[in-house]
Structures are given as C-alpha cells and as structure tokens.
Amino acid sequence: MFYKIFKYIYDIIKKEMAKSDNKRFAKEILPSNICKETFKYGDKDYQYYNIYRQENLNQFKACIIDIHGGGFVYGDKETNNNFNYHLAKGGYFVTTLTYSLVDENYLLKDQIEDVFCYLNHLERKYKFDKYVLTGDSAGAVLAILVYVINNDIELAKLYNIENFNLDFKSIILNHNVCYILDMVKLKFNPIVTKLIAKPGIKRLLYGKEYKKSKILATTLEPKLYINKQTELPPILLITSQGDKAFKNQTIRLYNYLKSLNKNVELYYETDKKAQHVFNIAYPADENGIRCNKMLMEYIDYKSKK
What we know:
9 helices, alpha/beta, eight-stranded mixed sheet
C-alpha cells in the first residue's frame, strides 16, 4: 500500500516535469547553423541518440556526451535539446541518448546498461581524441556511475557489461542527485520519509527484492563506489542558490571528493532565480550563458592536458 502511495506521488511529479518542459520547449529559440541528426545505438525500440554539430565544421574541440536528467522516470534525447544546441555552437561534437525509464519493466540497472551500450556504439562509430562526459540531475548519477563501473573490475562483473575505452578528459555533473535517498527526504516529515519515501525510491530503482540487491548496495551514494583508490578525471560540479531541494547534494559531493584529494571544482551560482538545472533548461538566459561559458572554458582547459 505504501509503495502505491509513493508511486502515485512520483507519477504526479513526472507529469509536472513534462508539463513544465513542454512550456519551455515552446519558447526555445535554438541557435542557427547547427546540424542535428538521429541514429540508433541498440536493438531496443527506444535506443536512439542525437548528434549536434556546426554545419560545415569538420574539426571539433571535443566530443561531449550528455546524459539527461528527469528523476530516473522522465526524459529522452530531446530533453536537453537547447543545451546541446548551445554546446554545439561552441565548436563541439555533442551527443545525447534516450535510455529506459524506471517503472515496472525497467530499473536503474537497465539504465546503466543502456548507457554502456550507447558508449560502446559511439566508440565503434566515431573517433575523437578528446571526450567529455556530462550529466544533469539523475543523468549526473548515471554519468559518474558508468565511469566508475567501467574502471572497477568487481563492479563491471556485477553489471556484466562490455567495457568501453573512451578517454574522458573531464566529467561535468550538473546539479547531481548522487545521494539517492536524499532525493526523497522530507525535511519536515521524517515519518513519511521513513515509511513511504525511502522504501519507495528503493523499490522503484531496484525492484521488489531491493533489500537483497547488490546493485543497491553499491550505488545509493558516492562513498559506496568512490574511494581514495578510485581513479577519476577532473570533475566540475555545478549547482545554484536557487536549487533549494538539491544544492546540498552537490556541496556534499564536492566536500567528499575534496577529502579524497580528487581533482574537483565547484561552480556555485548565487542568483536565487537560478533554480535546478538552470544552465541546462535555459542556456540563453543570463545565468545560463555565464555558467555555460565557464563550463566550456573548463572543458577546453582540461582537454589540453
């Protein structure tokens, strides 16, 4: 019964995300002279991806691989369309995918497997000297998990995936929600959090038998899959004052990575109007322009090394 309540509420949130995005999509003015194409990366009916590049441009600064967010239950390859257009305008080859969404048929493990399938496809089809991995919100969780799993022998065995050999010069995590249980933590209602929200998100992402899940035991928060021995490329974390629900996740991850002496930097937008994933949703706004200018400068600087 408690899970049905949780699922009902989460479905409402999903519908609200779709409604908000549809309004945003209707107002978007996309940069000109960008070529956008769609291809398939796997055998499943949803496994498609987009590429974005400047028309008549043959040399790119880097290949940026973007994983969209959406609370694990929402979104597709079009969700970050505007953001990806603006990145391509900066002289990058940009690509993003549609992956499975968690419901009765798919779990977090399936999403991770989709991203691995996609990255292996990209490695076979395209050849670049420099790659950058970026994700926002739930997509940031998938980005860092996939990178770590690919470079961890035991985790790779657990997921039974095909490793890729892409050389990522940096990882950019926009407004990450890597502390999964904190996503549903209700500050002023600990009882609902304990009885409904936390068990609900576990079942949603890991299935009915989540208590026995080895996937859950290795993905719920960064300390379970990142330690001092974990090799990571330079990481840029982005959050904002206006992201009241999730900004503490980014700050917490930043402090944790710093404690491990990892190469990590934090971009914190102080404008309270800059809300969750502001630079992804509104790349043409003042805050989005400023943030993404820094983001691209970071990519260029790290790619030179």
